[in-house]
């Protein structure tokens, strides 16, 4: 079976690895260079609890995704020969005023109700875990099994492992359309007017997924949500866990960099870094860890999170073209969801029932809403 995957970000690469291991003939089409969009811009948090603002199906999916990630990462690193720097130091989520404390206390309750582990700390206890945090810290949640990776290396690891398993990656090839006959895809129409034949097509083109023509009947629409990120140098390191607050987050890297994020902006496909974005992140970061003010600034960038109208991912068969599968809309959590997405898409392709109920994430929900 020849499977074409449209999009060479972390989602396309993870799926390619899983399918190639199952001996499918896999071709990934990437219009530019592999892994240079959202998957490059991300912070690399594998953090279902730190990222969640409400309980529900998406929180449960993210908890499951962390378990799948834990069960996958060693094998991925070994097969790829690339270390994605999966870091065990957890996350400290700090409250700097009483409103933030009340919100975090409420979160601790529903995290526990959903079966997640959370440890509540006083400000003094939190400073024992990470002395660099502000003396104004009133309270904190310690989330020891929310973690981080170097997402650029993780994407490379999926690509390297997929290549070793036999997948092909074609850079500089844009997929323009699904070529179909009798309600089934027969191939993918490319930017140069040629068609590449396929038995199955997977759309994993991030914020651009709905630009691929031929699937309009599914009414899947993505919008990009810009996230800006700042990066500082530390020698020696000053943070051990990643540190979150409701104002910003700080993610240390093994090489001494600290990433500070982020913004959530509707700016179309514009990846500019703006003064307002820098100001917002800087203000939050300095309130959390005042010592950051002395660090040398290294660089800033922005990326586009692929978001759907309901902010849930789109994972499942196209309702309008039988042998097309959507794997997109991962919004703020595509790094966390990467291993799980690869696993469930491999299940769908093989005709196995995925271990996770995918109904809330079905592409059919959009066609149903608009009819
Ligand atoms: C600032 C920021 C911080 C983030 N932090 C985190 C985090 O800490 N943890 C987390 O889990 N998630 C995080 N995310 C979200 C995460 O980055 C995304 O959900 C994830 O990278 C999406 O992966 P993707 O492969 O779907 O999309 P992308 O990485 O955007 O890849 C899509 C690829 O498809 C290609 N493409 C598009 N159209 C076509 C076409 N027609 N033909 C061929 N190729 C095409 C593009 O060139 C691109 O390479 C963050 C995002 C941002 C912006």
Question: Which ranges are low-confidence, i.e. pLDDT below 50, for 5 or more consecutive residues?
Answer: none
Mean pLDDT: 97
Molecular shape:
globular
Summarize the biggest pleated sheet: 8 strands, mixed
Describe the protein in words:
This protein is an alpha/beta fold and 371 residues long. The protein folds into 2 domains: 2-73 and 151-222 and 309-370, FAD/NAD(P)-binding domain; 87-145 and 224-306, D-Amino Acid Oxidase, subunit A, domain 2 (D-Amino Acid Oxidase, Chain A, domain 2). Helix content is 31%, strand content 26%. It has helices spanning 10-21, 38-41, 48-51, 57-80, 98-113, 123-129, 151-164, 275-288, 338-350, 364-370; strands at 2-6, 25-30, 45-46, 91-95, 119-122, 139-143, 147-148, 168-171, 175-181, 184-190, 195-197, 200-203, 223-233, 242-244, 249-252, 257-261, 297-307, 314-317, 324-328. The strands form 4 sheets. The protein has an 8-stranded mixed β-sheet. The protein has a 6-stranded mixed β-sheet with strand order 8-2-1-12-19-18, covered by helices on one side. A 3-stranded antiparallel β-sheet has the order 9-10-11, with no helix packed on it. A hairpin with a 4-residue loop joins strand 14 (242-244) and strand 15. Helix 4 crosses helix 7 (151-164). It starts with a strand and ends with a helix. The relative contact order is 0.20. Bound molecules: flavin-adenine dinucleotide.
